[in-house]
Write a structure and sequence with these properties.
single chain, about 260 residues, alpha/beta, Rossmann fold, nine-stranded mixed sheet, two-stranded antiparallel ribbon, 6 helices, 11 strands, about 25% strand
Length: about 260
């Protein structure tokens, strides 16, 4: 089984101070650390598990600048057999749709049975690349997938719906599977595997292979800004009895009781 896994290099912003840069359309990146998108780590693990079960190969693909090669090497260290970087520096204004178009173009000479990706990217939270890629390729897709089993050209897929519901799909392969976090436990890359991955060649594809005129951009960032501050929180101080008295007065003054 030949498997493609799409990964993205994203800034780690959970515990970092994020500031908008001077252009007003991006964030300051100098003091941020970058890593593989969390959801894509689960997609990569599923891809490697499928290879271990069915045989075949895993190809990691990413649309990114040169530093994305570091993330692709982690994918190689975790079990991917080859890696492809689509040179983001060759294409302007890359949104989710253009990302899907670039991935489709890179896949034209590659045989695949299944494409894994994360269900969401933690930097822009668009959740569109997997769906758009499947539509462009003309193959089935499923998102927020929590379990998948495959056999004889078909896949049994379980995915999350709203309200705590689960959906079971019987899908023909090839298909795009956008996985939910927690579908498996991503493995760590050993030091030996990291050293071996550092020596592997990463194929690059740019504007020489993909005509920019054939691409379109549906979304252009106009402005980034932090959420406006409306009302400030009031911190009540004092011992428990004093805080209780202050809280009771606030509730009464606002007519809540």
């Amino acid at each position: 089984m030949n498997i493609i896994v799409c990964i993205k290099r994203v800034p780690q912003t959970a515990e970092a101070e994020v500031k908008v840069d001077s252009s007003g359309k991006d964030i300051e990146r100098e003091r941020l650390t970058f890593d593989m998108n969390e959801y894509d780590t689960f997609a990569l693990e599923e891809a490697v598990l499928f290879k271990e079960k069915f045989g075949g190969t895993v190809t990691a693909m990413s649309v990114g600048r040169e530093d994305a090669q570091d993330t692709l090497r982690i994918a190689l260290a975790k079990g991917a057999d080859s890696a492809v970087r689509i040179k983001a520096e060759d294409f302007d204004d890359i949104d989710a749709i253009k990302t899907a178009q670039l991935l489709k173009a890179a896949l034209k000479d590659i045989e695949y049975d299944i494409i894994f990706c994360g269900s969401i990217a933690t930097d822009d939270a668009y959740s569109q690349v997997g769906v758009a890629l499947a539509q462009l390729l003309g193959i089935p897709h499923a998102t927020l997938v929590t379990k998948i089993e495959a056999d004889q050209g078909r896949a049994q897929v379980h995915r999350e719906l709203e309200g705590g519901l689960l959906e079971h799909l019987d899908m023909a392969l090839p298909a795009v599977i956008a996985v939910q976090s927690g579908i498996s436990i991503p493995r760590y890359a050993s030091l030996i595997a990291i050293r071996k991955a550092a020596k592997k060649e990463i194929k690059t594809i740019g504007s020489d292979e993909i005509a920019a005129d054939d691409l379109r951009t549906d979304i252009v960032i106009d402005k980034l800004f932090p959420p406006p501050v409306t009302k400030m929180a009031e911190i009540l101080t004092g011992d428990p009895s004093e805080v209780s008295e202050k809280l009771s007065k606030i509730i009464k003054d606002k007519g809540l009781i």
